[in-house]
Amino acid sequence: MATLSTNPVSARAHTNIALIKYWGKRDEELIIPYTSSLSLTLDHFYTDTTVQFKSNLSEDQILIDGQQPTEKSFQRVHQFLGLIRKQAGFEMPAVVQSVNHVPTAAGLASSASAFAALAAAGSKAAGLQLSPTALSRLARRGSGSACRSIFGGFAEWQRGEDDLSSYARPLFQEKLTDIRVIALTVARGPKSISSRQGMKLSVDTSPYYPAWVKTCQADLERLKVAIDQNDFSQFGRISELNAMRMHALTLSADPDFTYFNSQTLTIMNLVKQLRHNGVACYYTIDAGPNVKVLCQQSAVAKIAATFSKVLGEKNVIVTKPGPGVQYL
Questions:
Q1: What's the average model confidence in pLDDT over 271-293?
Q2: Which of 42, 120, 176, 318 could make an SS bond with 11 (beta carbons 3.0 to 4.6 A apart)?
Q3: Dihedral of the alpha carbons of 103, 104, 110, 116, in degrees to the nearest 10
Q4: The Diphosphomevalonate decarboxylase-like N-terminal domain covers which part of the protein (predicted)?
Q5: pLDDT for 29-38, tens place per residue?
């Protein structure tokens, strides 16, 4: 049995953006994906979570952003804590306080930072001494993309074949170090179709899903070469293309759906216009309407000014590669 921490344990984890997307599970319960993926952890968006296991409680006590979570969110955290308790060999309830410094459920990977922080704080509070690989594996069980937020910079989630072999690992920490991501927020509320719902619908009904699995692997290998060679234009082009291939699955599902809104499309066209005019930039979009523009430091001022006129300055945030999980 693990030795419990007598004090609360706090951890911070940052969001990541998938450059080669994860979209679809082979195993819903274990969250084993059909494809490997590659992401960049960002410095600006993060979740702080504090966990303490206490014997005098009758059940878990959970606060998210200072409020009681919905029943669905409570159960998701409760079940994840159950995984930690099982590993630690006890049944003690926990007090969890989590604060998201990122818009929730709007395509900015709030669940990735949330479950990475919960995995780190919860496992340490339970007395578990997990390696980075084991921590990544644990975080995956809460939210697939959380396994990548354990690491800073670029990370590859190796799809694996089972619970033991599906986890993330850091990559290319000294490559493309001047990369910047400009996060453009066009909507802050929860999306109408969750990532989980959208993935399942795409897997079950899109006739193009088998082609996605094959193409995604090729995109991943090509992107790794581009990063290793510090080739920003290839890096951006492959990332943008892979994002569009993912969203093609939503449009070809039955019933079809999209995470884009009118401003999403406006931004996509503006990025292409900037590129046509000699500004090296590319877009990527996860499960939500918000857009992330990939560029290098030298192009930041021009791009940020362009989108500040369209969206307002408060909706344009410049971010750079961020660190892995930290204990506070």
A1: 96
A2: 120
A3: 120
A4: 13-168
A5: 999 999 999 9
Which structure tokens are listed for 238? 């492959």
Q: Has residue 18 been placed in a domain?
A: yes
Does residue 14 sit within a domain?
A: yes
Question: Are residues 139 and 212 located together in one domain of the fold?
Answer: no
Q: Which residues contact 151 (CB under 8 A, 6 or more apart)?
A: 41, 132, 136, 168, 169, 170, 324, 325
What CA–CA distances, in Å, run from 260 to 27, 136, 201, 233, 253? Answer: 27, 30, 17, 25, 15
Would you give the DSSP letter of residue 146? H
Among candidates 211, 188, 226, 17, which has minimal Cα distance to 105? Answer: 188
- How far is the C-alpha of 306 from the C-alpha of 309, rounded, in Å? 6
Residue indicated by tokens 């960049």: 40
CA distance 165 to 32: 9
Shared domain check, 200 and 149: no
- Quote the CA–CA distance of 238 and 54 in Å, as a whole number: 48
pLDDT in tens, 72-91: 999 999 999 999 999 999 99
**Does residue 1 surpass a pLDDT of 70?**
no
Q: Find, among 178, 159, 175, the residue nearest to 167 by Cα.
A: 159
Counted domains in the chain: 2
Q: 227 with 172: CB under 8 angstroms?
A: yes
Beta-strand relationship, 25-27 and 154-158: unpaired
Domain boundary among 175, 194, 223: 175
Using alpha carbons only, give the angle 22, 153, 42 rounded to the nearest 5 degrees: 80
DSSP for residue 299: G
Cα distances (angstroms) measured from residue 194 to each of 10, 35, 70, 155: 28, 19, 15, 24
Residues 238 and 306 in one domain: yes
